[in-house]
């Protein structure tokens, strides 16, 4: 089903059982898989690929005890040019994806999220609401990016990393005054299965080792290891972002 108010560009290929609601705008040379649902007002740029069984522009449901999700009118989901979105993904209304973003199968991107160009969101990653992710970021399989997080350009988040935002673990109304996600500065790296406690800042080019639990802010260009994570040694010069061939400033 394609609503009469949909604006289709040239050379758009649409699979079987696709639903496209009112006022959707789709650019040129877009490939849409089978069983895709595109909610009203969604904007899709040129050259995009949308995998099978994906939902774009979903409105959030608010649980009765949710402390972060708001009931408000959200702008349309906006997807830039040459974005690839895998199968079985859910992207919510009110988020913005820059050009050349790649979203792996089974990923979820909530409302009020911004993702910069050339960023990769891996398979099964959950990006919660009110999160900002920069350019050329790589977030690998099954990482959990909690609400209210900030991840700057060129960061690397390994598989199964967990960011947190609630020091009270869901107890007391007081916790609502202190919600804060992690702040991961440009070029920082977080190893597999690491956990970052609420509001912790990871400095530019810092490295948090696999399995670490970061309970305090991490200094720029330093490596942190252990539980709780402790300062170990400086990041080797050859590993610094400024010395990488792919770095574009």
Short structural description:
This protein is mainly β.
**Structural domain tally:** 1
Count of separate DSSP helical elements = 0
Share in β-strands: 25-35%
Query: How would you characterize the largest beta sheet?
Result: 12 strands, mixed
In spatial order, strands of the major sheet run 2-5-8-11-14-17-20-23-26-29-31-32
Based on helices, strands and strand pairing, what is the structural class? mainly beta
Overall CATH class: Mainly Beta
How far is the N terminus from the C terminus?
A: 45 Å
The gyration radius over C-alpha positions equals 19 Å
The global form is: globular
User: In the CATH hierarchy, what is the superfamily?
Assistant: Hexapeptide repeat proteins
Q: What fraction, in percent, of the residue positions are helical?
A: under 10%
Average pLDDT over all residues: 95
How many β-strands, per DSSP? 32
CATH topology: UDP N-Acetylglucosamine Acyltransferase, domain 1
CATH architecture verdict: 3 Solenoid
Q: Detail the poorly predicted runs.
A: none
